[in-house]
Amino acid sequence: MFDDTEIDFLEVEGDYDADTIARFIEEGGVDNVRLIVLRNFARQEDCRKLEARFNEIIAAFGSNRGEDGVVRNQQVGSTQFQRNGEDYVRETVKHLDHVIDLFSVLDATTVGNLFLDDDLERAFLKRGKVYRQARHLGGTGNFATTRKWLDNGAMTLHPHEDTAQIAQGAEDGFEIGGGPHTIAANLCIADDAEGSATVLWNHCPDDTVRKEMGLEMTGYPYPIDYADRFQKLRVKIRRGDLYFMNASYLHGVENSPTNYRITAGRFITPVGHKVLTWT
């Protein structure tokens, strides 16, 4: 639940080591590192293409996530939040056309590398594991969910953790249910000129804490004053950055001058001989 050793983050410019990232995903960290940021990973031109198409889809069809009283955002693609496996894969199929439309502005090779898929497939193969999208009842998890975070009060995205929702996925046997922790992989495709700060607190809530907070199935939101009892990292994220974070730890996004931040992201968890992605 709480590690007395302070956590840290790793910032990488240029060449990266896929084996280190695979170890990070499998173990939930490398030494005391709980966040890896690959700076300027994606080309600025590609990010702008994705940004423009995202805004076109939202203008034409609205958000794939309606007002749920939890988080205000504009979204393309499905999310497993508050859904079991069957509901999630059905939601994924429902919005698949929009996901394909969004990423079709880039060539297939570029899309295949946005989250290091090829490199991670090889890295995990060397570790005796298969890296793939999660499957359930013949359906698969979403490739990536893309969001623009809107005004949510004191923070753009309040303190939360993304392991609680695994329990809901496990209710009907969705294979992510066996995962020990959740890794978030996010690509920032648009942001304020100043960049907005991702915050990671050195606190990994367990079931007892979730029950006390009434957050067993959501993990959102934890009070800010509760999260601030623990050591925290503040890391500016900018257009083109790809980052991997242990999302079982409390994390959030601070407000920025315009709250104009668009990210494409997914979750990853290791389960036995498999390493699974979903959204």
From TrEMBL:
This is Fe2OG dioxygenase domain-containing protein. It comes from the Bacteria.
